[in-house]
Specification:
The complex is a heterodimer. By secondary structure, chain A is an all-beta fold. Chain A is built from no helices and eleven strands. In chain A, the strands form two sheets. In chain A, strands 2, 4, 5, 6, 9, 10 and 11 form a seven-stranded mixed β-sheet that branches. Chain A has a four-stranded antiparallel β-sheet with strand order 1-3-8-7, with no helix packed on it. In chain A, strand 5 (42-50) and strand 6 (53-57) form a beta hairpin. Chain B is mainly beta. Chain B is 0% helix and 52% strand. Chain B has no helices and twelve strands. Chain B is globular, with a radius of gyration of 13 Å. Chain B starts with a strand and ends with a strand. Classes of the chains: A mainly beta, B mainly beta.
Chain lengths: 114, 115
Amino acid sequence: KAGVTQTPRYLIKTRGQQVTLSCSPISGHRSVSWYQQTPGQGLQFLFEYFSETQRNKGNFPGRFSGRQFSNSRSEMNVSTLELGDSALYLCASKTSGEPTDTQYFGPGTRLTVL
Amino acid sequence: AQKITQTQPGMFVQEKEAVTLDCTYDTSDPSYGLFWYKQPSSGEMIFLIYQGSYDQQNATEGRYSLNFQKARKSANLVISASQLGNSAMYFCAMSPNFGNEKLTFGTGTRLTIIP
């Protein structure tokens, strides 16, 4: 069974641009969560989608948005990029909305903002 | 708000020895879940072990066990008989309402196993 895949793996953008990251969950998984990992702030929860609906949201500005498609694939978008958005963005999926389901993480997308 | 504290930035342990990674937490929620994840240099987070706040017994998964002391608000990870493959970053995390969702992570401990 294929794991969580994230594309692209590496991305370089400049300040002011926008970026879209993609996450394909494990087959059959309907919940997708996104996390940001930076050296300064560590790992922080961005948002979770389940059955195309945002179920949980972290404390990030509105520049960070996401969506989920009917096939459970998810995208996150960051508009008006800032230097501080440079980070590893991790996606995680789990089977259902059951809270105790194990989350499986992808390898991440490393975004560098110049 | 939930908070996780990991006070050991780095640890060096001899192969085959046991190692304890410290984790303390703070929350006002009566129900919560505690997790440990491993992050090798590849970046992928690997789930290791889970403890619910009402679980009476400490969780175990193979060579991993979670030493849960609720009164002290600690959830230390114990790795028995460490192996070279255990070298990685280890993160303690917690979630509201037992759920494996909306995780709050600690700053991590970099564990290096010495042959």
